[in-house]
Design a protein that fits this description.
With about 325 residues, this protein is of the alpha+beta class. The protein folds into two domains: about 5-165, Ribosomal Protein S5, domain 2; about 170-305, Alpha-Beta Plaits, CATH 3.30.70. Helices cover about 35% and strands about 25% of the residues. It is built from ten helices and eleven strands. It has helices at about 70-80, 105-120, 125-135, 140-145, 185-195, 205-215, 220-225, 235-240, 245-255, 280-295; strands spanning about 5-20, 25-45, 50-55, 85-90, 145-150, 155-160, 170-175, 260-265, 270-275, 300-305, 310. Strands 1, 2, 3, 4, 5, 6, 7, 8, 9, 10 and 11 form an eleven-stranded mixed β-sheet that branches. Helix 1 links the parallel strand 3 (about 50-55) and strand 4 (about 85-90). The structure holds cytidine-5'-monophosphate (C5P).
């Protein structure tokens, strides 16, 4: 059997609203997530030794059970009751680590999709979703990808109302990240609670009202192509921006990009992005800002929005 290849796309948050605190200690969120064509690749091969091994070209990533890929594989074989299943997994990392782009969550989603196929587990999407939710709040979204409203901890997914589900907005995205800076997600949420906890919403009725506002609001309309893009809200940006110099610098740079429709931080950062009316405009802005981005030490990617999450790739052509 040839190796199986799975793509694991990065996501950005087009909206991240912290509504309140949940009884389980997580935050109740209302988000819009979007996958990009920046992706890791997982290459999977079955083994007969009941071992799950992970190799990667990325420095500083754990390859033991601290890696969500290994945890996803262990959970899947436990769920199907076949502990003798083994796999050799290679991760080709392109999504920056600790960046707010869900790279680790997407890798875990790709492991679930790929190993479900490789091992012939035959689990349905809903069963993979349940395992994904136990691995992390963003992992279920990473299975689906595309433009999605995400509620609860982030694991309750809805399509954009009125949009064709396979269609991705034809926006250009200029994504930047400083390679030496990362932000801890628990730290960002903890700081948010310190600063804003007294003003968190508390009732389910208030949460429901905010979810409806997002479903019917100007961002959803703009993503359906029915109006201008509004200011993008990320409640963690307000928390992270004052503390992380490179986030302030990067936002200031992106705000000077010609033709940018909106500029924001993704997730808990420190990745930042600017949106443009079409991909060519993002490329032009990249050329315009290239020297300044390089001087400030940023890496940059011109991306497009995509309509799907972790998915099997066609077989590589034989030499
Ligand atoms: O679910 P995940 O492992 O990605 O979450 C990482 C951390 O982010 C959690 O331990 C928690 O501190 C914070 N978090 C949160 N509320 C969410 C999602 C994450 O407080 N909805």
């Amino acid at each position: 059997m040839p190796d199986l290849r799975v793509t694991a796309p990065a996501k950005i948050n087009l909206h991240l609203e912290v509504l309140g605190l949940r009884p389980d200690g997580f935050h109740e969120l209302a988000m819009v997530m979007q996958t990009l064509d920046l992706a890791d690749t997982l290459v999977l091969a079955p083994t007969a030794d009941a071992a799950i091994s992970l190799r990667t070209d990325a420095e500083g990533l754990p390859t033991d059970a601290d890696n969500l890929i290994v945890r996803a594989a262990e959970q899947l074989r436990q769920r199907v009751g076949l502990p003798e299943l083994g796999a050799a997994i290679r991760l080709e990392k392109r999504i920056p680590i600790g960046a707010g782009l869900a790279g680790g969550s997407s890798d875990a989603a790709a492991a679930l999709v790929g190993l479900n196929e490789l091992w012939g587990c035959g689990l349905a999407a809903a069963e993979l979703h349940a395992i994904a939710a136990s691995l992390g709040s963003d992992v279920p979204y990473c299975l689906e990808g595309g433009t999605r409203l995400c509620f609860g901890r982030g694991e309750i997914l809805e399509p954009l109302p009125g949009a064709a589900s396979a269609e991705a907005p034809d926006l250009g995205v200029l994504l930047i990240k400083h390679p030496e800076v990362s932000v801890s997600t628990p730290w960002a949420y903890g700081r948010c609670r310190e600063l804003r906890g007294d003003f968190y919403l508390e009732s389910e009725a208030d949460f429901a009202q905010r979810r409806d506002a997002l479903r019917c609001g100007p961002l959803a309309a703009a993503l359906r192509g029915e109006g201008p893009l509004p200011h993008l809200r990320n409640d963690l940006q307000v928390v992270v921006e004052p503390e992380v110099v490179s986030v302030r610098e990067g936002l200031a740079l992106l705000r000077r990009a010609e033709g940018a429709l909106a500029v924001a931080m993704s997730g808990s950062g420190p990745s930042l992005f600017a949106l443009f009316p079409e991909p060519a405009a993002a490329e032009a802005a990249h050329r315009q800002l290239a020297a300044e981005l390089a001087a400030a030490g940023f890496e940059a990617w011109c991306c497009r929005c995509t309509g799907s999450g972790a998915s099997l790739l066609p077989d590589a052509p034989q030499p």
